Amino acid sequence: MRRTLPLLALLLAVPARAADALPDTKPLTEDGDLAAKMVEGIGKYLDRETAACVEKRKQYWKLDISAADAYAKSVQPNRDRLKRILGVVDERVPFTDLQYVAGPKTLALVAETDDYKVFAVRWPVLPGVDGEGLLLEPKGKVVACIVALPDADWTPEMLAGLAPGAPEEGQFARRLATAGCRVIVPALLGRADDWSGNAALGKMTNQPHREFIYRMGYELGRHIIGYEIQKVLAAVDWFCLDKEHPRVAVYGDGEGGLLAFCAGAIDERIDTTVVAGYFGPRGELWKEPIYRNVFGLLREFGDAELAANLFYPAPQAAGRDRIHRLVLATEIDPVVDGPPAAAGGRSGAAPGRLVRRPFDQQIMPEFNRSLKLIEGKRARATFLPFYSNGDLDAVSWVAEPKPTGVAHPQPIGDPPADQRKGFDPKEREHRQFDQLVAFSQKVLRDSERSREQTFWSKLDTSSVEKYEASTKAFRKQLDEDVLGKLPDPTVPMNPRTRLLYDEPKYRAYEVTLDIYPDVFAYGILALPKDLKPGEKRPVVVCQHGLEGRPTDVICPNKDSNYYHSFGSRLADLGYIVYAPQNPYIGQDKFRVLQRKANPLGLSLFSFIVRQHRTTLDWLSTLPNVDPERIAFYGLSYGGKTAMRVPAVETRYCLSICSGDFNEWVAKNASVDFRGSYMFSPEYEMPEWDLGHTFNYAEMAALIAPRPFMVERGHDDGVGIDEMVAYEYAKVGRLYSRLKVPERTEIEYFDGPHEIHGVGTFAFLKRRLKWPPD
Questions:
Q1: What is the rounded distance in angstroms from the CA atom of residue 771 to the CA atom of residue 756?
Q2: Do residues 256 and 149 touch, judged by C-beta distance below 8 A?
Q3: What is the pLDDT of residues 57-102, one digit of tens each?
Q4: What secondary structure does DSSP assign to 158-221, as a single string?
Q5: Do the Cβ atoms of 340 and 192 come closer than 8 Å?
Q6: Sign for the pseudo-dihedral over CA of 478, 481, 482, 486
Q7: Helix, strand, coil proportions of the chain in percent (round to 5)?
Q8: pTM, whole model, 2 decimals?
Q9: HSE (side-chain half, CA atoms, 13 Å) at 318
């Protein structure tokens, strides 16, 4: 039952020392670092959700096993979603033949044996992007067409036995060629860091080449995995130009096993897929190198689901029953201890390791789970313990699939000799790297036009009412698909408070609010002492930045660095002020949250948005709060929050972005901007496909027609004035078209990355009508 006296009347009627908790709340007795406990609690939530998602995946699969065509149709939406999250979205370049790679001093014919010839080849894939590697062409009848994929640290020459580094049993490219297979071996990007950065800017990193391409691609809805799958599928395109082509297969080991597995899952032209050194559970994907991070993967696709649903044919798949679509070979896992060591001024790589996985504890249970998933479909799975004991030969299954038994490995003789003199595979890899950088930067430049077509062209600015209606679908998209929306709270809010500061003009209280088990919101609430019973005042939610705390914002008698105690200053002016704790604290401890969240289709902002929603629920119940006048003002990472949270949460009546507004997509993906996150250790910054959905102008458009302001210091290294002004010009134009140009402002000031608190305070006064004149 609500108390008869308003909250503040009760509060002001008791001595400060007795008012340890706000009325209608329980005393906050929790000790220790609440920010650290928040991060830890979110981690526990994500661990539970990762475990639970295995069972929840069933909702995404609507299998129709009544006929082959019906089955293919029923899983096509799954294939399409898998292609999208892997970044296999660009149309490939059509071509009619491979190109030999030769020169005046270099022959295209690399080597020759009694059974096959080896050629250096390339083939078009995407505009400006080629596949490049080796073609092993048998001299007799071609029994199968194979794309053989090495691990990322192996070259095609190693797989063909032309260069040292791979054991004989791992040289499956030449084993396949000896068995009569036509084999293409693409070169993959490796895990070194030779070119990861921009030397002209003096910005070189220790990011593996795969991570460097991953970072720029992820922001643009592309992926190093997707790029290299496109190279595989372009080779399959070439195989299929011959209408009478024999069986098509992909065979990969390690990183190549990942690519083969995904390529076979999304393209039904591939009859047989052999996966070595990859298959297994993905619950600890967040521990693997970041270039394996795929947004939303685990929500729908575990390895068992891919194996069971996208490989094995339906019972009535005529003519396909003889083919074993998936062969799992228990090759030894690649071991990667982490990125290249930080040295020589190079740093910034994300942590991530590949370790040997216990066969009985991890690989076999995932395989058994796939068998359970295909029960009732009468499909046959092939599982070969290959290389682990040397008595089975997966190559024979590719070259000549047999319905029974296994084939023993055949001797393949001495490896051929590379006839090229002074050949350096690094030069080829460098070309591959530069092509993917150039293609990604072109996608970056084109992304603005894409947003114009998919976002701006669909907004109705003829009236404010029609405009707000036209933004609803986009707000839902940002909330659910881009940031990742969490469910409603599952536990009561249970507000708990305790007095933190008793200042001449206000009292400040620590506040915690429960959301889920282990997950809570926490912050500091400052209440002016001159509040009158029944009086409604505006609230300013003041958000700290990276590694910050609410005490940086509300810190009486102290001019805090960057923040200049702006929360305390506003409280002294008579505003109700709330300073939330956001979970971006603890360095890699919070960045791990992003790694755990992304495979579930979530992000750090999934939790930040939910915490703010719960906080708004509670603030709106306070008797002196005017729920129609709750404003948001954040600096730096708090500025990021100022762009995202009010864009999806319309209860914020206005938003002020300080020290963060930018051409945000370029800030994350550009290799030519000195301040780009491409060169930063903040590896959690890229957000999946933001480039084709919501840059900062689009987020501001979802705040409109509510008031919106940018605070920008000329010397703020987060960006440059030119980029900020370019992006903000779109915002100003929108508000003008809505006939409310006075509702948006940008203030430039001579200063660094900090709260200026001049134009913004005036903006708050005009918009919130406080303090009264």
A1: 19
A2: yes
A3: 999 999 988 887 888 899 999 999 999 999 999 999 999 999 999 9
A4: HHTTSSSSS-GGG-HHHHHHHTTEEEEEE----S--TT-EEGGGTEEB---HHHHHHHHHHHTT
A5: yes
A6: positive
A7: 40, 20, 40
A8: 0.93
A9: 2
